[in-house]
Amino acid sequence: VQLVESGGGLVQPGGSLKLSCVASGLTFSTHIMSWFRQAPGKERELVARIYSDSSTTYYADFVKGRFTISRDNAKNTVYLQMDSLKPEDTAMYFCNARWRDTYWGQGTQVTVSS
User: Fold this and answer.
1) In 10 A of CB 17, how many CB atoms?
2) What is the C-alpha to C-alpha distance for residues 10 and 31, in angstroms, rounded to an integer?
3) What is the three-class DSSP state of 94?
4) Closest Cα partner for 48 from 98, 1, 99, 95?
5) What torsion do the CA atoms of 93, 17, 66, 39 make, to the nearest 10 degrees?
6) Residue 21 pairs with which residues in a beta bridge?
7) Which value, to the nearest 10 degrees, does the dihedral of the CA atoms of residues 98, 52, 106, 42 take?
8) Of 31, 36, 56, 71, which has the most beta carbons under 10 Å away?
9) Listed residue (85, 76, 81, 39) closest to 57, CA to CA
10) The pLDDT of residue 55
11) How many Å apart are CA 90 and CA 71, to the nearest integer?
12) Where are the alpha helices (DSSP H) in the chain?
């Protein structure tokens, strides 16, 4: 199983980024997909989650109204559209797949700074 994130980078406050995570080696459509993040010196925290048929999503309070999670089961890909980024959004962002087992990607760095 492999989860590969991309789309991170350096962006100014108020800017946008779109993260992607491509999964392979698993039945993507059955898995609950999530984005987590971890800032230096802090614990990893859940950012957003989307269930297998996209009917149910969850967002942490600190990203509600700014981030949007989506998935394309035909492309084995989950996305995180991040708008109105703040410096406190700076972190390594990780893709997570969960069903019978749990899998993690290697992460993509997001830095929000002027």
Assistant:
1) 21
2) 30
3) strand
4) 95
5) 30
6) 5, 78
7) -70
8) 31
9) 81
10) 82
11) 23
12) none
In the block, which residue shows the tokens 């981030």? 67
- Each residue's pLDDT, cut to its tens digit, for the chain (114 residues) gives 999 999 999 999 999 999 999 999 999 999 999 999 999 999 999 999 999 888 899 999 999 999 999 999 999 999 999 999 999 999 999 999 999 999 999 999 999 999
Q: Which amino acid is at 69?
A: I
Residue given tokens 């149910």 in the structure block: 56
List Cβ neighbours of 14 (8 Å cut-off, separation of 6 or more).
84, 85
